[in-house]
């Protein structure tokens, strides 16, 4: 059954309403709710899978920053009265997840990060690309994936439209600069929740060494690489991603029962 987008005040989100614990999925800077279609299908019968829209394009301009996104997420979790959540973030969504987990450790059951920013990222840079340069945007979008075919024309068109909208383009740059300023290297030892790291071997935006650094700095973490995969494993290699995450959640649950 297709999910319907819900709008409640300032919050826009999808929710499966499954019987289990909540899984909160956070998309990246150019991402959207469609990035997690395979995770919805896989986990919806056992968990309540929730996908909020991060309001990168709609926050008041003075609040456009990682801090503004974390505040929005905090308000959303309170609005939904969520129990401790399994929080999952790709790219910028991972950065937001970490900052939220550091601020509210009591509300986090587990963390799953994939291609997360927060230590090092190489994206579009600090200025907008040449306006109307479709081929440039196409190549940049394709670089997110190991297989360029995953980057559909619809996806390229969406990114192209975003960066050629002056208002949206400005917000993209402001958010990206905020992410660079919020380096987490000195904070990650504060993460105590069990953490799963899933990285693409061919990720050129947050390369494999970034996953290794996260693994070193987060004490209770495990790192898995997926081959022939770049910056968005949940899209490009959904079966491997889902298997790794499912096994991780099961093992954490079993560990808690033993304790």
UniProtKB/TrEMBL annotation:
One Pfam short name: Abhydrolase_6
Listed Gene3D superfamilies: alpha/beta hydrolase
Positions of the AB hydrolase-1 domain: 23-242
GO annotation terms (biological process): acylglycerol catabolic process
Molecular function terms from GO: monoacylglycerol lipase activity
Annotated signal peptide: none
GO cellular component labels: membrane
Keywords: Hydrolase
Keyword flag Ribonucleoprotein: no
Key word Cell inner membrane present: no
PANTHER family (UniProt xref): HYDROLASE, PUTATIVE (AFU_ORTHOLOGUE AFUA_2G14860)-RELATED, MONOACYLGLYCEROL LIPASE
Protein's name according to its UniProt entry: Alpha/beta hydrolase
Lineage of source species: Bacteria, Pseudomonadati, Bacteroidota, Saprospiria, Saprospirales
């Amino acid at each position: 059954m297709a999910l319907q987008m819900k709008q409640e005040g300032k919050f826009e989100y999808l929710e499966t309403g499954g019987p289990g614990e909540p899984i909160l999925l956070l998309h990246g800077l150019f991402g959207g709710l469609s990035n997690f279609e395979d995770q919805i299908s896989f986990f919806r019968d056992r968990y309540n899978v929730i996908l909020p829209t991060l309001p990168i394009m709609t926050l008041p301009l003075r609040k456009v920053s990682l801090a503004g996104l974390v505040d929005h997420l905090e308000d959303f979790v309170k609005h939904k009265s969520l129990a401790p959540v399994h929080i999952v973030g790709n790219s910028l969504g991972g950065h937001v997840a970490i900052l939220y987990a550091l601020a509210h450790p009591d509300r986090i059951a587990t963390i799953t990060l994939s291609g997360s920013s927060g230590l090092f990222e190489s994206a579009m840079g600090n200025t907008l690309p040449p306006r109307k340069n479709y081929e440039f945007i196409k190549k940049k979008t394709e670089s997110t994936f190991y297989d360029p075919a995953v980057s559909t024309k619809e996806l390229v068109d969406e990114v192209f439209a975003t960066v050629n909208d002056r208002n949206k383009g400005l917000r993209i740059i402001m958010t990206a600069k905020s992410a660079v300023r919020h380096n987490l290297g000195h904070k990650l030892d504060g993460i105590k929740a069990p953490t799963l790291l899933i990285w693409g071997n061919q990720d050129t935006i947050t390369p494999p060494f970034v996953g290794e650094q996260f693994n070193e700095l987060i004490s209770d973490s495990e790192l898995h690489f997926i081959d022939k995969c770049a910056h968005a494993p949940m899209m490009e290699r959904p079966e491997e991603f889902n298997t790794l995450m499912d096994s991780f959640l099961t093992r954490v649950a079993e560990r808690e029962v033993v304790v």
